[in-house]
């Protein structure tokens, strides 16, 4: 049984070609500690902990040519059932459901616009153990050029209902599951290439966005979008030293 309900983002992890540098960069940025999985087959997969509680992970890329990327996982009670829904709704099953040791069962799929997302059916590892505080995942958002198609797809797969402009931000949609907004969706920026796939983005909470951006740059990362104020708070888009995109945010 997971800590978050089924249909809710529950985990994020990084695929990177330089795992050693990720173990340096992110702990220095967020104050995390790392715990390396003992199984040789795990390839050095590392749990990042905040005050001893799991907040994120990092591991080697699944294939050598994979670009460095943070992935979003949605909690589920049945990964195989979700995989069937994905295909029926017009998505693509990228990695069929499989067991991750005794930790859980997962699958990877892409929506019709190309955004890749994973599902996590917990066993001994519930996913993230703390959310919405500095140093932990605080928000996830789909960036897509086809919001109408996404509304149909994610309702069929997870039962999400679109809630347009839940924070008063034009062009922004909240994904509602029951009474809760569990994630968001927005259109890409104006310079988004027309043939680029959609993607899921992850936001980590910080106490001071401007200080975190400066710290990331000093550690070898890059500021992709300078800190700015939005209805949900103050945020910035960053890249780590290997180029993986992530965001940091401070609520208002």
UniProtKB/TrEMBL annotation:
Listed PROSITE patterns: VOC (PS51819)
Pfam family, one: Glyoxalase
Domain VOC: 8-122, 136-251
SUPFAM superfamilies: Glyoxalase/Bleomycin resistance protein/Dihydroxybiphenyl dioxygenase (SSF54593)
Record's protein name: Hydroxylase
Entry superkingdom: Bacteria
InterPro entries associated with the record: Anthracycline_SecMetBiosynth, Glyas_Bleomycin-R_OHBP_Dase, Glyas_Fos-R_dOase_dom, VOC_core
Alphabetized Gene3D superfamilies for the sequence: 2,3-Dihydroxybiphenyl 1,2-Dioxygenase, domain 1 (3.10.180.10)
Organism whose genome encodes this protein: Salinispora arenicola
Chain segments annotated as transmembrane: none
């Amino acid at each position: 049984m997971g800590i978050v309900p089924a249909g809710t983002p529950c985990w994020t992890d990084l695929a990177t070609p330089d795992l050693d540098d990720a173990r340096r960069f992110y702990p220095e940025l967020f104050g995390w500690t790392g715990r390396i999985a003992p199984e040789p087959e795990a390839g050095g997969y590392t749990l990042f902990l905040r005050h001893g509680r799991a907040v994120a992970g990092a591991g080697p890329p699944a294939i050598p040519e994979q670009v460095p990327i943070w992935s979003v996982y949605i909690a589920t009670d049945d990964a195989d059932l979700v995989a069937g829904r994905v295909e029926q709704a017009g998505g693509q099953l990228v990695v069929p459901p499989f067991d991750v040791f005794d930790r859980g069962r997962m699958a990877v799929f892409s929506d019709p616009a190309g955004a890749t997302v994973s599902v996590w059916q917990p066993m001994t590892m519930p996913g993230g153990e703390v959310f919405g505080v500095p140093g932990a995942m605080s928000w996830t958002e789909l960036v897509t050029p086809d919001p109408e198609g996404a509304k149909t797809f994610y309702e069929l797969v997870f039962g999400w209902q679109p809630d347009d402009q839940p924070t008063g931000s034009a062009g922004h949609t909240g994904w509602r599951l029951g009474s809760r907004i569990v994630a968001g969706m927005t259109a890409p920026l104006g310079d988004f290439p027309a043939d680029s796939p959609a993607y899921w983005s992850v936001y980590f909470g910080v106490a001071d966005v401007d200080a975190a951006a400066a710290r990331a740059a000093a550690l070898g990362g890059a500021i992709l979008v300078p800190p700015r104020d939005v209805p949900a708070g103050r945020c910035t888009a960053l890249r780590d030293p290997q180029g993986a995109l992530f965001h940091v945010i401070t609520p208002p």
